[in-house]
Write a structure and sequence with these properties.
The chain is of the alpha+beta class and 211 residues long. The chain contains four helices and twelve strands. The protein has helices at 53-59, 100-116, 144-150, 193-208; strands at 4-10, 13-19, 37-46, 63-65, 73-77, 82-86, 91-97, 126-137, 156-157, 166-170, 175-179, 184-190.
Length: 211
């Protein structure tokens, strides 16, 4: 897996994004990860030295500001469908992202909107992926009670009376896995697909040890 940066220039303002390999997981040659699907990507960073949120929200459509409820402005982009939390410090959090292109396009729209509102963005805004949420189908029934015995008790949470899934915290890489008896799982905490795949490999090694 190759970790790389990608930059694209929009009217003189390069966007510097950090991400892992291509997020089109479904097209991976390795059939092992065929059912691995990205559900959400969260990215954050700094796009400006400071932002007048009142001015910005007043000039830009689909941007809400209610400081009594939340200190930042909520800017909803329709295409690609992304929700952006923008703060007066110039920091931004983007969520609802499904792939690297959506992140690049969404950030370009935010920067364009800043300029339209008379706010100068940084010459090199820098945004990094901070969390990826993926789903995966193990393709087999999982006996969660046996799994509890196999896994390190310090790294799991399992209370079937309250919730049907088992939470497994992998230390290296730092991935949290939500496991259901149906074989469906959710992996979160990775910053790139490589982290997610490594976490999945660790989990499957543990499952293979169950007799």
């Amino acid at each position: 897996m190759e970790r790389h940066t990608a930059g694209s220039c929009h009217k003189g303002y390069p966007l510097v994004l950090w991400f892992g390999e291509s997020h089109t997981v479904e097209k991976m040659a390795d059939k092992k990860y065929e059912s691995l699907k990205i559900e959400n990507i969260v990215a954050s960073g700094v796009i400006a030295g400071s932002i007048d949120l009142v001015e910005f929200s007043g000039k830009i459509k689909n941007c809400e500001l209610n400081k009594k409820r939340f200190p930042g402005a909520v800017y909803r982009i329709a295409d690609p469908k992304i929700a952006c939390l923008i703060f007066s410090s110039g920091k931004i959090v983007l969520t609802g992202i499904r792939n690297s292109k959506a992140l690049t396009d969404g950030l370009a729209i935010v920067i364009k909107s800043l300029k339209e509102a008379g706010i100068e963005p940084l010459k090199e805004p820098r945004v990094a992926i901070t969390n990826m949420v993926c789903s995966y189908d193990l393709g087999k029934y999982i006996n969660l009670s046996k799994l509890v015995v196999t896994l390190n008790v310090e790294n799991i949470e399992y209370e079937p009376e309250q919730f049907p899934g088992l939470v497994y915290r992998i230390q290296d890489p730092k991935i949290v896995v939500l496991i259901f008896s149906s074989g469906k799982i959710i992996l979160t905490g990775g910053k790139n697909i490589e982290d997610i795949k490594r976490g999945l490999d660790v989990l499957e090694q543990k499952l293979d040890s169950i007799r």
